[in-house]
Design brief:
The protein starts with about 20 loop residues before the first strand and ends with a helix. The protein contains six helices and 15 strands. By secondary structure, it is an alpha+beta fold. The protein has two domains: about 70 residues, no CATH class; about 170 residues, Alpha-Beta Complex (tt1808, chain A), CATH 3.90.1570. It has a seven-stranded mixed sheet, sandwiched between helices. Helices cover about 30% and strands about 30% of the residues. The N terminus is likely disordered. Helix 3 runs antiparallel to helix 6.
């Protein structure tokens, strides 16, 4: 396996050190929030994604709980992450390319599980919360019946623009930290829409150094593939138990990943 460098330690908050290019608003209720979101989304799309894909809101903890975290409310809008100690809510504006990448990678993983008879043995985890902080990963799955009875996402997927690398690594740190998200694998997918380039980084937690560590990188540029190695997801890390026949690791080959990348660029040009 290639030896990748350790990631920088991004601290304990999901929302520390965000770039100043992210627009910041005071939360003034759901109506104002939605108006602001759709206005910024339109600007983001018309800029050809040259502006930040994030919007930051200052919001007090009680309002955040009532308007976004109450399980009894019908909220069709999902946020990126929050920190109630810092009274912050971060929104990610998801492009069509983002949706295509999230959907196709999820389909591929679920297809492999279906063939192994494990599709109904895993469940999605749309929100990962740890204390005052929380995050909606683009995809997250874990075993339906974990052996330690701690239901959580063991595999998570996060998609973003290549320019958002520091934020994506901060997400991976939160998701993999054994004291917070407690996932085993984070797949970080970065899209460079100008170069038609998809980079998929697989991160795990390095307990010795208490950092995340990138253990695999696959980069596919339109017409060029930088590696021949497939994406390998350990079935034991997903299910948190030893494998049994006919189970195998989830393997997504380069040609399949290339097809996923091509489908993203097709959405971009359609």
């Amino acid at each position: 396996m290639a030896d990748y460098p350790y990631s920088k330690d991004y601290g304990r908050s999901l929302l520390e050190g965000l770039p100043l290019s992210i627009k910041r608003y005071q939360y003034q209720g759901k109506e104002h929030f939605l108006h602001t979101y759709y206005l910024e989304l339109d600007l983001f799309k018309r800029s050809k994604h040259d502006t930040s894909e994030y919007i930051l809101f200052d919001i007090d903890a009680d309002t955040l709980e009532k308007d976004f975290l109450d399980p009894n409310i019908d909220c069709s809008f999902t946020f990126d992450s929050f920190d109630t100690e810092r009274n912050l809510l971060l929104i990610k504006m998801k492009s069509d390319e983002h949706a295509q990448a999230t959907q196709q990678i999820g389909f591929s993983i679920m297809e492999k599980l279906l063939h192994m008879g494990l599709r109904t043995d895993v469940k999605p985890f749309p929100l990962i919360r740890a204390g005052a902080q929380g995050k909606h990963p683009d995809n997250g799955w874990g075993p339906m019946r974990p052996p330690d009875h701690d239901r959580r996402a063991t595999i998570v997927v996060e998609v973003g623009l290549a320019e958002s690398q520091p934020k994506l690594e901060r997400d991976a740190t939160f998701l993999l930290d054994p004291e917070r998200g407690k996932a085993n694998i984070a797949l970080i997918v970065k899209l460079n829409l100008k170069k038609h380039q998809m980079t998929l980084d697989k991160y795990e937690w390095d307990g010795d150094n208490e950092f995340i560590k990138m253990v695999q990188r696959i980069q596919i540029t339109e017409g060029e593939i930088a590696t021949s190695n497939p994406l390998v997801i350990s079935i034991e890390q997903l299910m948190m138990r030893p494998r049994s026949s006919p189970e195998n690791d989830i393997i997504i080959g380069i040609e399949e990943l290339k097809d996923i990348a091509d489908s993203i660029w097709s959405v971009q040009t359609s």
